[in-house]
Write a sequence for this structure.
């Protein structure tokens, strides 16, 4: 089977979909869109795997500890993620447990380690927080190398440090994706040199800051995602995001790159299958 598109980073395994997660997954598959459910802590990572194993194909998991989950932190979704209708929450601190993550990382439906990385946004840039994030990120790069699966990386206001760690930890041996890429073309080139892909969200449908990178980046280094329930694309702004809306992101890439939609859709799927060995 060859789907129309693959949403490579979505959170139907989060509490925002607690009531209707399986319904949303079924609807997405019926729309000929596949998805990678991404965990951000041990419980959401386990839920991603347990959803994925219910489907013979089309639903996959990424397991990891997100950098904002190391310390208790209040997260204002409306402000931080430009998304209406998703409640704010306070994070529960977690210490990375290698063995617990390794167990789910080895599951055949797990296609990546993450989301992991660095997030120095809004006060998360004290020495203590940065050190903890960097140590935890290094441990997850090591786990990815150990189980030989690619990385799903979250990076906010920390591109230089992420690049340094990827190089020091030899992450180019496994590769992966820089999720929600928001850096400059100069930063983008450094990730491409490390054999990483860049993925883009619905934000490209309503903000023009991404156009230059999108015009420059080769189509075979790009993937698409929704990051649902966050950053809902135009024309669905104001609603909870969901994986089917990845089509709006892919269409916008075709428009910015001035290429036929069917060619872009096919290449995006191909890239995802190569990167995550789906
Ligand atoms: Zn995410």
């Amino acid at each position: 089977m060859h789907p129309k598109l693959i949403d490579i980073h979505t959170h139907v395994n989060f509490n925002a979909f607690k009531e209707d997660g399986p319904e949303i997954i079924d609807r997405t598959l019926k729309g000929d869109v596949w998805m990678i459910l991404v965990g951000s802590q041990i419980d959401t990572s386990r839920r991603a795997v347990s959803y994925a194993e219910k489907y013979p194909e089309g639903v996959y998991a990424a397991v990891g500890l997100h950098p904002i989950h190391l310390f208790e932190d209040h997260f204002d979704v409306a402000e931080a993620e430009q998304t209406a209708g998703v409640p704010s929450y306070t994070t529960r601190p977690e210490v990375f447990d290698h063995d617990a993550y390794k167990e789910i990382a080895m599951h055949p439906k797990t296609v990546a380690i993450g989301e992991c990385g660095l997030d120095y946004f809004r006060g998360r840039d004290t020495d203590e927080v940065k050190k903890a994030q960097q140590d935890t990120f290094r441990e997850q790069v090591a786990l990815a190398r150990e189980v030989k699966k690619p990385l799903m990386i979250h990076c906010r206001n920390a591109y230089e440090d992420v690049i340094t760690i990827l190089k020091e930890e030899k992450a180019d041996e496994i590769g992966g994706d820089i999720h929600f890429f928001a850096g400059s073309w100069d930063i983008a080139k450094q990730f491409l040199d490390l054999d990483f892909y860049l993925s883009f969200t619905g934000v490209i449908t309503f903000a023009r800051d991404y156009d230059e990178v999108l015009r420059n980046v080769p189509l075979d280094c790009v993937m698409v995602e929704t990051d649902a329930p966050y950053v809902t694309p135009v024309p669905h702004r104001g609603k909870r995001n969901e994986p089917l809306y990845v089509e709006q992101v892919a269409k916008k890439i075709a428009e910015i790159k001035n290429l036929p939609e069917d060619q872009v859709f096919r290449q995006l799927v191909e890239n995802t299958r190569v990167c995550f060995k789906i």
About this structure: The chain has ten helices and ten strands. Residues 5 and 33 are 5 Å apart (CA to CA).
